[in-house]
Amino acid sequence: MNCVFGIFDVLGFTSFCENCEPHAAEKVLKIIDDFETEIPRLVWQELDPENKVPQEKKDMVTSRLRWLTFSDTVFMAMPLEADDKPDTVKFNLIFFTMLVAYINRRMFEIGLPMRGAIHVGEVTVSRRCFAGKAIVEAHRLGEKVQVATTVVSEAADAFFIQTCPPGTGLNTFFKSAIIECDLPTKTSGMEKIKTLCWFFLHLGHLPPFVIPGDLKVYITEKFTDHGKVLVDEAKNKVANTEKLFRDWIAVNKLDYHELSLKVPPSSPSLNPKV
Q: If you ran DSSP here, which 8-state letter would residue 53 be given?
């Protein structure tokens, strides 16, 4: 299927498995298991606060999502059908982007920072497995950055802009949510790469994320939660993640982006034709 998708790895998962007490691990894994129902519900609260969209339409959009979670890998995709109307595609991209941003936030909050990538392309998905060249491209892109973040491929970013061109409210949404930053990579030193910012995410009744006063302490605690132990490479990821978060804050303060992930009420996409 042709789709926009995200593939993410949990950083420090081996250390989590080795050191986390079984009862604590069960609680954490239960949170992850609930993502498939909890996160779409929160997104709908934000996109349809007055509950005007019929439930059957909500169910149709939500049921299109493909989820797979196993070991330290999370995969989520939104199919792109050839006969989808333009407003349907726009809405589905907004819906998908908000889902991914919230997954990033929740995983960080529960002490399992993720690293991954959003990409577009042909993917084969069964009940329990996935395959395809696009999967490999996305995995390589996410794996090369030395920071806990979701990066956005050039192909995905171009597709977002093509679907929601400049001058539209939804284009502002993507410009606000996707921020280009200098990221350290394994092969080429610092590289300018688009990142998905979740700091200023607002969803339904969910309280906004409170940016900690001491980012270094906060990030270190999340990387070492559940008994995880930092080795040298992980220590570098802590420092790199702190720099990325400060870059997100700086961009927002400079008003280059108004980082509200709310869709304008006047958007025709709020009544998705599916």
A: S
Spatial separation of the C-alpha atoms in residues 177 and 96, rounded to whole Å: 12
pLDDT tens digits, residue range 55-89? 888 888 888 888 888 778 889 999 998 888 888 88
* Residue 167 three-state SS: coil
**Is the Cα dihedral 81, 86, 88, 90 positive or negative?**
positive
- Total-model pTM: 0.86
Q: Which residues face 2 on adjacent strands?
A: 122
Strand pairing partners for 70?
73
Domains and CATH numbers, the chain: 2-263 (3.30.70.1230)
User: Which segments within 16-113 are labelled E, that is strand?
Assistant: 66-70, 73-79
Which residues lie across from 67 on neighbouring strands? 76
Beta bridge partners of 192: 182
Residues 135 and 123 sit within 8 Å (Cβ to Cβ): yes
In this predicted structure, the answer to whether residue 252 has a pLDDT above a threshold of 90 is no
Residue 219 and residue 245 in contact, taking contact as beta carbons nearer than 8 Å: yes
Of the chain, the percentage scoring pLDDT greater than 70 comes to 91
Q: What is the mean pLDDT of residues 155-180?
A: 83
In whole angstroms, give the CA distance from residue 157 to residue 78. Answer: 15
- In whole angstroms, what is the distance from residue 154 CA to residue 77 CA? 17
Mode of pairing for the β-strands spanning 124-125 and 66-70: unpaired
Q: Please report the DSSP string for 174-229 in residue order.
A: HHHHEEEEEEEETTTEEEEEEEE--TT--BTTBPPP---S-HHHHHHHHHHGGG--
